What we know:
By secondary structure, the protein is an alpha/beta fold. It has 12 helices and 10 strands. It has 2 domains: 159 residues, 3-Layer(aba) Sandwich (D-Maltodextrin-Binding Protein, domain 2); 132 residues, Periplasmic binding protein-like II (D-Maltodextrin-Binding Protein, domain 2, 3-Layer(aba) Sandwich). The chain is 41% helix and 18% strand. Strands 1, 2, 3, 4, 5, 6, 7, 8, 9 and 10 form a 10-stranded mixed sheet that branches.
Amino acid sequence: MHFHNFPAFKKPLLTAMLSVGLAGASAAVQAEEQQLLIGSTSTSSSQYGYFVAISQIINQEVPEVSTSVVETGATVDNLRRILRDQVDMGLVTTNVGYHAYAGEGEFSDRKVDNRLLWVYSNAPQNVVVREDAGVESMADLDGMRLNPGITGSATEATTLSVMETLGIAPNYVRGSTTDVVAGVKDNRMAGYVKSGVGSKLDGSSLDISTFTPIEVLSLSDEQADTLREQMPDISVVNIPAGAADGIPAYTTWSFGLAVHSSPNLDEETAYQIVKAIMENPGPQVSALANLADVDMAELTLNSGTVPFHPGAARYFEEQGYEIPETLQPVE
């Protein structure tokens, strides 16, 4: 066997292998630059399905970007992960996002710089009371037995702040949703505060209404103005008539369910992501039916609480929207 010709073949083969290797390395670097992680919530939550849907939209519509959804402990966990660069963007309720940005509450020891991409849903906080409780207005809740929201929830924390800001002191009763629904049905408490589903009451409130007539309390104009001035972490919303059968229009406080990002997210990438989400509503409505009635751009501009990511701001400006002072991007 003769091997004297082997060196003649060695060089082109080596060159080919090197070029394949370099191309592979280049592709790997490119992929690494565009691999984004999205923090969501528990897989048992209906919100998790929304994040799967937006991940698919981004992967289909935004060139050279690949996203993966990470199951997390929701808002506070996502903000901590944004701080540690463990996720690039994620589910953040607008009120807690504001606390993190401003360094308030549980973030007083360490601010988290997080930027607004979009708000996808409102969570109106409905004060649901028995019709026979003798409570006609928010002020009448003074001294009344009221559940402020499930223990440890954003609803509970926000209710306590709202009532304190309005100078109202209910007699708070704590408990799980099951306990509270039973308590209202049995007339052991006047009512409770519960997040709505878009502009409708949630299932537990409808459950109570099958046993006893209910009312939803409305903020007065003066109370609404007080909250707008003194609680920038929440928004005041007008809910049209029909939140449930026989419920007239009312005004209440709300926070938004939003997607916030790290300030380190590339501006062009943020722009392309927001554009893809705003222009592809179909899969989002399939994931969360109540989004069918939502104008997401208007909701974002009305309910956002932290400055826009510059890439998101660029998209909204291009569409002709005026960005409020509080949402203007900052360095």
